[in-house]
Write a structure and sequence with these properties.
Blueprint: H1 17-29, E1 34-38, H2 44-53, E2 56-61, H3 76-92
Parallel strand pairs: 1-2
Helix pairs in contact: 1-2
């Protein structure tokens, strides 16, 4: 798998139009089936990539934060399990409907 992102980790700003266009081009050129979004950022830029390319939304990945105790990832092991399951589902089932 080759990773592409809309903005660097811990960036203060979200994706620019140029970054969104570059990622959309990569997704189209490489037939990327699924786009994922981190739990701590707004998914509007990812949704733009999805609209422009026809890729599926693979769901939310938790990378540096846990949910509340009654949420989907209350522990680190739950986080790992959730993300692995989301990635497998996104790459085999084509994720959520955009």
């Amino acid at each position: 798998l080759t990773e592409r992102y809309l903005w660097p980790v811990n960036a203060e700003r979200e994706g620019t139009p140029q970054q969104i266009a570059a990622v959309s081009e990569f997704v189209r050129d490489n037939d990327v089936p699924t786009v994922f979004c981190e739990s701590t950022v707004n998914d509007s830029a990812q949704r733009s990539v999805i609209r422009e390319t026809g890729a599926a939304m693979g769901g939310t990945l938790y990378v540096d934060s846990l949910s509340e105790a009654d949420g989907p990832v209350p522990t680190y092991l739950d986080l790992l399990r959730h993300d692995a399951e989301a990635i497998v589902a996104g790459l085999t089932d084509r994720g959520e409907t955009p």
